[in-house]
Amino acid sequence: MHLQEEILKEHSKKQTDKIAAWVCKNRVRFNKLMYLFFHGEYRVVQRSAWIVKQVAEQHPEWIRPYLKKMLLYCKQPVHDAVKRNIMNIMQFIILPENIQGIAATICFDFLAAPDLPVAIRVFSMTVLYNITLQQPDLRHELKAILEEQMEYSKPAFISRGKKVLRQLSVNAGPLLT
Does residue 177 have a pLDDT over 60? Predict the structure, then answer.
C-alpha cells in the first residue's frame, strides 16, 4: 500500500479503518504515518489525523514518543481536525510530567477560545482534568474557566463541564467519557 495515495484516495470511515488496520500491523508503517502527519500537505495531514487516533487507540505505546511534538503541533496553523484528534488521543493517556505544563497551557488556550469547535474544547477539558489529578494546583484555574464558560457554551460543553466540575468537587479519579 502506498500510504499517501491511500490517504488521498477517499475520506471516509471505511477508508480510514482500512488504512488504520494496515498501519497497526507494523510500527514502521506507523512511523511513516506520523511523518506524513507532521510533514504532509494540508489535506494529507488533515486526513491522517483520524488514522493516527485510531492507531493510537490500539497501540497507545506507539504514540508516546510523539506526544510532545503533537502538543506543539496544535500551536501551529493546522486544520481543526488535527487539533480535535490530538486532544481526543490525549484525554485517554496519562501524560508524562515533563509535558503536562505544555499540555495544560494549550488546553487552557483551547478552553478560552469559544470560536473553536466544541469537540476540541471538550477534549481539552478532559485532558486538563486528568492533569489536575497529578497537578492539583490547577484545579482552581480549571474550575474558574469552566464556570465562566458554561453559561454561553454549547450543550456538549455544558454536559462535560458539569461532569468535570462534579469530579473536581469530590476529588475523584480519572474522568471516563
Answer: no
Residue 12: which residues within 8 A CB-CB, separation 6 or more?
none
Residue for grid cell 466544541 = 118
The pLDDT, as a whole number, for residue 170 is: 82
CB within 8 Å of 142: residues ≥ 6 apart? 125, 128, 129, 132, 164, 168
- For residues 66-78, give the mean pLDDT: 96
The residues, ordered by sequence, that sit 6+ positions from 56 with a Cβ below 8 Å of its Cβ are 62, 63, 89
- What pTM was computed for the model? 0.92
SS3 track for the chain: CCHHHHHHHCCCHHHHHHHHHHHCCCHHHHHHHHHHHHHCCHHHHHHHHHHHHHHHHHCHHHHHHHHHHHHHHCCCCCCHHHHHHHHHHHCCCCCCHHHHHHHHHHHHHHHCCCCCCHHHHHHHHHHHHHHHCCCHHHHHHHHHHHHHHHCCCCHHHHHHHHHHHHHHHHCCCCCCC
pLDDT at 175: 58
